[in-house]
Protein 1
Amino acid sequence: MRGRALLRGGGGMVDPGQQELLDKRPFVLLLAFLPTQCNNPHQINRLRRRSSMAKKKRTSKNGGAKPSPSPAEPAPPPPPPSIHEGELSSELSGAVDYGPEISEAQAVTRRQAGLDIVVRGTDRAANRRLAGKIESAVGDAIPHFPHRAAGAYALPHWQQKSRSPAGHSFYETDNFKARKKP
């Protein structure tokens, strides 16, 4: 317990000159006081490990900081999401199969007919926005998370609040992907 009090610098155990040094380098200087302040060998070993880790951070390149990306090379934007015909898989896994790519106008027409669509891409937020935009063009839409009862491979989706027309505007995320139609 005294080791913790010493680390925080409380209790008057350290004279003012040592306290100033302790505030700058708490783990390294704490080792100098350990033999008289702490008798627990496990605590001593833990503090030694902390001290060596602190030394490694101070002596590593850039002071232990992660290298920052070059401002001259911004990351390229992800490709825009694509819209595909969609169909629920015939098995009970909840998977969604995707077909050929279609335009946004074709997707709205398909949704008005009660058929499914799938929005695919690497940007989850863009996929969700586009699926919501298509579904909202059909009527009053609400988002849904994947339904557990649908199966392990169910996708998040948008659908009509009134459930008419039937069907869904599915979208892919990082963890949930549609399968290519066989």
Protein 2
Amino acid sequence: GLSTWKVSTNRLGGIMHSAPVIVGTKTRVSGSRDEIAYVGDLYGMLHAIETASGREKWAFIPRNLLGKLKNDRTDPNAVQDFAGVDASPTAKDVYYDHDGDGDEWRTILAGSEGFGGTSIYALDVSDPDNWFPLWEATDTQAPGGGMGHANSVAIDKVKYPVRDVDDVDGDDDTDEIIGYEIKWVVFVSTGFAQIAVDHGGINVFAFDLTTGDKLWHFSAEYADSVNDIPGAATVYDLDGDSFVDRVYVGDMNGRMWELDAIDGSNPNGTEGTGDDTKQIPLYNVGIGHPISVSPAILRSGGHTILVFGTGGANWAADDQTYAIYAVDATTKQSVPTYAGGAGTLLWKVDLAAGEKVWSTPTVAYGYIFVATAFGSMEGSDPRQDAPVTGQPSGNFLKLKLADGALAWKLTDIGKIRGSIFVDRQHAYMTTVDGQIIQIGGEDFGAGTGSRVQLQTWRQF
């Protein structure tokens, strides 16, 4: 054992669900800046760390977490309500008027708090030496008590209709559209803040990036008591005009939702009447098959295709069979139903019993790369999630995009958590027990994974 303790003068809380976002030196924003990695921790802070040196520039604590900082995670007697920025931040260069002097490019970072809180925030990090908060927001009006916990947010722009609210043309129609404006929006999907009776549900929100004002929300109740964090909202431009048209998000009841990015309406309509009315999803896998991660979205032959997997939850049964799906969001059913959804299933790949998808599939070079894992990924003690000798850990699959046929598979590669990065005929992924794996060759030929060397690191 250790004979002495190492005293660290600059400590970092544990990082669990927060994937760093790298904001580089190359930017539309004028001037030069350091490359910064932004990442959240389990102790209520978003950290800004120089990638070149590993030195921390600063940390940000959202206002709603200040009162929870006193609850020490290491104290078993502490109130079990801990501050955390346990979610992946998002950054984007945004062209808008931030100071009343006309539009200009700014780099905006936005994020959520995972199980650490129920707010979202936005920061201007155009200059990491002179950053400033823009706003923090939550919601208490949506069903289930409003905004629940979220794993990440999305930032993009919509072509927002301008209505003749002042009846300028004198035709008594104040709802008519007289033009369009560019509106930058933050999208986020959450569970319910509170479980109503014995049900949870999904809430999806859109907030104005410039003001933090809520633009719309969509809600759907669950048919059982699961109220876990749903898959992150993914936005998509259907017509190639650079404005997003759709928001796609999966939920913990196995439904993949398709929403209008401008107003949050469901283009697939409803089924039933009165109290029995149900929103029709794009696709419905069924209860007990949670969709806990974002879909991969691509355009093929003029059609919008979503690829996603199921099973990514600790409570999902280990003797159940989960699957990877490809759904056509363009070709709709002539008579859509709640049970089946409105989209068209292109193919389905069944996995082994207890084999679950915890990460978003990656589409590259006409193939789909996806990792699976067996057993726990969200244990109260992280040691419970480590692979067990003699038991399957997880697989790495390469599937043909056209029909889902298996090109090859690497077995027992580890329990992969997070999406796979594919670049220059190599794939990179991380395991739940902290290993970085590199796979690939000239043609992505199957083989054993190799561990990569770290370029930079920071010791705490």
Protein 3
Amino acid sequence: MLPAHAPPEFQDRSTLWNSVEEIEKSSDAQLAREIEVALPVELSRAEQLALVRSFVKDNSVAEGMCADFALHDKGDGNPHAHIMLTIRPLKPDGHWGPKCRKVYDLDSQGNRIPDGKGGWKNHRADIFAGMSISQFNTLGDSACSVTSAIKEFFEKVHEIRHEMEKEHEN
């Protein structure tokens, strides 16, 4: 899914992700963030797809991010979606914008908190509408935990279930 001002050639996944790679200067730069979310088994595949599209559109694409996602359901009771987002937003002119800045987590005295690996706990001051995302993962890393986004996602699920119940009552 792309913002309205995205170059039309970004409809091709290869072109999009090649452009993401080309803009980075460092060979070990983070290119994307991945969000993995569980989907309610009670929803049909079409409803799950609509839910994921709505979530991605409202929380990422509306802020200039490009999103690529896939739904998985092996019939084992664990339908889920993998959502991959560009780190950089697209500016209105169709060029890549700057990455978000790193913000260090502080303790009650205002000191940086060690991460146990020789560094400091931090998060990114993200461009998502008011959301602070605690941890991102790079391509190939394990799925990340995005508490605010997941909470909003499940609020959306609740809204859809409520609407479905209303429809069934009529």
